[in-house]
From TrEMBL:
Pfam families: zf-C3HC3H_KANSL2. This is KAT8 regulatory NSL complex subunit 2. Residues 72-127 form the KANL2-like probable zinc-finger domain. GO terms for biological process: chromatin organization. Non-catalytic component of the NSL histone acetyltransferase complex, a multiprotein complex that mediates histone H4 acetylation at 'Lys-5'- and 'Lys-8' (H4K5ac and H4K8ac) at transcription start sites and promotes transcription initiation. Required for NSL complex stability and for transcription of intraciliary transport genes in both ciliated and non-ciliated cells by regulating histone H4 acetylation at 'Lys-5'- and 'Lys-12' (H4K5ac and H4K12ac). This is necessary for cilium assembly in ciliated cells and for organization of the microtubule cytoskeleton in non-ciliated cells. Keywords: Chromatin regulator, Isopeptide bond, Mitochondrion, Nucleus, Phosphoprotein, Ubl conjugation. One of its GO terms (cellular component) is NSL complex. It is found in: Mitochondrion; Nucleus. The keyword Cytoplasm does not apply. The gene is Kansl2_1. Component of the NSL complex at least composed of KAT8/MOF, KANSL1, KANSL2, KANSL3, MCRS1, PHF20, OGT1/OGT, WDR5 and HCFC1.
Amino acid sequence: GSSLLTGPEGLMAKERENLKRLKCLRRYRQRYGVEALLHRQLKERRMLATDSAAQQAHTTRSSQRCLAFVDDVRCSNPSLPMTRHCLAHICQDTNQTLFRPCQGSEEVPCNKPVPVSLSEEPCCPLHLRLPPQMYVPEQALAVPEELEAAPTDLYLSAAELQPTESLPLEFSD
């Protein structure tokens, strides 16, 4: 449609002015000359930097293993992000502050790493101390012996429970 409107024949002055504005608005945000060249070079540099950084991060992350040694054998677990130790050996890192070893109990010592929380002594789920029970069940009421041995003649049999008279249909269940 724009090729039909480009010719000056048949267009009034107001239409030509509107067409000129429309063409200017189409090019408003485009870069030209030196600005376009610098912008393209900047985009290429950013793409190269992000691609190489992503590849480098991928290769280093996939090759990072835990630095801890167990019985003179290096741990084969992958390290946690931004650290050099796995979850089992993170407490060996002296610079970290996010994990502490579980204190365990006197009978069963435990050195499992536990995330530091708001409590002063973080524990693993095995050694977690539960708060005291808030609900105390009431003591069972003592039932006198005379009520326990109730006579059975107070209860009606199934035959005695049958209705003796027939009720009209609208009153029956």
